[in-house]
């Protein structure tokens, strides 16, 4: 089992549709730890009219959870960011320089299933204009991004592609899985993360994903997308 870093998860309690109690948070942390994760970036949703929890509340919950994690898992590093849905709320936040990045300059950006490339490019440009590097959250869920030429073009422009462990494992339907596995084989994914929401229905599946990625593309690539790149994003390069 390789050591891992998970840059996209909803482990923080009471702030979105992720963990509903501290107990659920700690169960998710336990799953991450047992699957080799030693660095976690918690990324609560920010989405207009759906998840508008303030940064202040998120910092408070993070402080409490971090203490608990420190007692049980002293070698687990944690940091806080957000999963920004690309909508007018995100635009105003980034323009007002109120982004909570991963590390110093990475922003986890989420698009809707039906967003077209024009819309996607509009938001990517804003993120880059403001001096950040976009990390596209679960790109496989967005119809317009299920295209290898587009992924190659994005990677040439240093835009990072994150895919969910569950999608690679076939939990989100056959089409998505086939696309994800081909993308793994072509080396077009930069990061695999759990996007875990709760211990039972949307758990941490990084260990199973590691096995599939290793089988398809080798251990070195698995290490790159499950450890090296995520650690660099969190500013925790060793
Ligand atoms: Fe997410």
Cα gyration radius (Å): 16 Å
Strand numbers in spatial order across the main sheet: 3-5-6-7-8-9
Order of helices and strands: EHEEHEEHEHEHEHHEHH
CATH class: Alpha Beta
Structural class: alpha/beta
Q: What proportion strand?
A: 5-15%
The H-level CATH homologous superfamily, spelled out, is Metal-dependent hydrolases
CATH topology: TIM Barrel
Ligand inventory reads: fe (ii) ion
The count of domains is 1
The first-to-last residue Cα distance is 18 Å
**CATH architecture designation:** Alpha-Beta Barrel
- pLDDT under 50 segments (min length 5)? none
The average pLDDT value, as a whole number, equals 96
Helix content: 40-55%
Primary descriptors:
238 residues, alpha/beta, TIM Barrel, six-stranded parallel β-sheet, 9 strands, 15% strand, globular
Describe this structure in words.
- The protein has 238 residues and is an alpha/beta fold.
- It has a single domain (4-233), classed as Metal-dependent hydrolases (TIM Barrel, Alpha-Beta Barrel).
- Helices cover 44% and strands 15% of the residues.
- The chain has nine helices and nine strands.
- The chain has helices at 22-34, 55-72, 88-95, 117-129, 148-156, 165-169, 174-185, 206-217, 219-233; strands at residues 4-6, 37-42, 45-46, 77-80, 83-85, 106-110, 133-136, 160-164, 191-193.
- Strands 3-5-6-7-8-9 form a six-stranded parallel β-sheet. It has a three-stranded parallel β-sheet with strand order 1-2-4.
- α8 crosses α9.
- The longest helix is centred in the first third of the chain and has 18 residues, at 55-72.
- The protein is globular, with a radius of gyration of 16 Å.
- It starts with a strand and ends in a 5-residue tail after the last helix.
- The model has no long low-confidence stretch (mean pLDDT 96).
């Amino acid at each position: 089992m390789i050591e891992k870093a998970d840059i996209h998860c909803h482990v923080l309690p009471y702030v979105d549709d992720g963990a509903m109690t501290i107990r659920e948070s700690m169960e998710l942390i336990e799953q991450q730890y047992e699957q080799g994760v030693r660095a976690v970036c918690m990324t609560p949703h920010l989405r207009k009219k759906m998840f508008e929890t303030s940064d202040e509340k998120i910092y408070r919950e993070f402080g409490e959870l971090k203490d608990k994690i420190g007692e049980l898992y002293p070698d687990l590093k944690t940091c806080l960011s957000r999963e920004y849905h690309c909508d007018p709320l995100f635009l105003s936040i980034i323009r007002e320089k109120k982004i909570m990045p991963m590390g110093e300059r990475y922003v986890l950006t989420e698009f809707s299933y039906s967003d077209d490339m024009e819309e996607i490019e509009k938001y990517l440009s804003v993120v880059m204009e403001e001096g950040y590097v976009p990390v596209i959250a679960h790109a496989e869920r967005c119809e317009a991004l299920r295209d290898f030429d587009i992924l190659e073009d994005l990677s040439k422009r240093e835009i990072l592609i994150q895919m969910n462990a569950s999608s690679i494992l076939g939990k989100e339907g056959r089409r998505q899985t086939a696309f994800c596995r081909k993308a793994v084989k072509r080396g077009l994914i930069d990061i695999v993360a759990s996007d875990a929401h709760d211990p039972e229905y949307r758990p941490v599946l990084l260990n199973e994903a590691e096995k599939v990625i290793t089988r398809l593309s080798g251990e070195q690539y698995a290490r790159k997308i499950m450890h090296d790149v995520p650690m660099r994003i969190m500013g925790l390069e060793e």
